[in-house]
Amino acid sequence: LDRLDTRVDVVVSGHTHWEYVCDYSTYNPAKPFLLTSAGLWGKLVTDITLEIDPASGRVISKRAKNVIVQSPSYTASTSRIQNTDLYPMFEPRADVAEYVARYVAAAADYSLRKIGTVAGPIDRASGPLANTGGSLAMLIADAQLAATTGAGAQIALMNPFGVRRTLTAAPDGSVTFGDIYAVQPFNNDLVTQSLTGAELKAILEQGFDSEGPEQILAPSVGFSYSYDRSRAIGSRISGMILNGAPIDPAKTYRITTNQFLSNGGDSYSGFLKARDEVIGTSDIAALEAWLKAVPPRAGPTEARTTDLRPELNPNRDTTPPGQKYR
Questions:
Q1: Which of 40, 148, 272, 275 could cysteine-pair with 256, CB 3.0–4.6 Å?
Q2: Cα separation of 118 and 299, whole Å?
Q3: pTM (2 decimals)?
């Protein structure tokens, strides 16, 4: 933001998932633009008003506010969304509502088709463990490994922040395509690449550096590692084991990730050093095939990552027993 041209008047930002309207000049007087974001899930829309001098073509005043989007009550994927009298309610515009309804109807059969069964809810983890991805991130890694063995894959790694919600089945255990799409709505291709053991360790270390939120990549079955936050950045990963054997720093391994990670997403730039890339199926197709293969599929329960110093977890839950949040 501090490098933007001074002619910029408004920055409409996204993907931070926060809602704000910020007069940036209070932070940097040389950059007097508005910085806005409408949060996430379509809860808000940013109403921006600019006054422009037609003679000079310059913006002479600007203001913005976030408006709560409150539609008539409806049933979402997990609950009934009720209204409140505290904010205005907007009636859908008839022509737009009709247009949306056509696509909802067209997608219904595909979204509601059963693609497998599970033995129970498979948790993505939340609260202090949200950066691990829980059992669900490991299940996804297993699915991606199985889908790319033809490309020589030995290990698959899933970024926990790419798991959007817990996989919850119907009472009979059935799972629909819509259920897994809510878990992984990105349609990323899977990428299998070659990395040395040393390069793999460097990538895992990036989950504990200062370049972004701490994120512990979830490994596929057969691969495990430990981490120790008391050690210096760059030296926190240890105990990397593949199928009972220690990872050899000089040996080359075939690693599968989604395309977002392989392109350096979530600050994992180490993947950009990988070689011999093979593009495979999509992440959601791999998950669908994995759930279909074994009915009912259970989520992994074994520990594949080990926190050697849990007391140093910056997200550790210190709530006294009996006062845990849900």
A1: 148
A2: 8
A3: 0.81
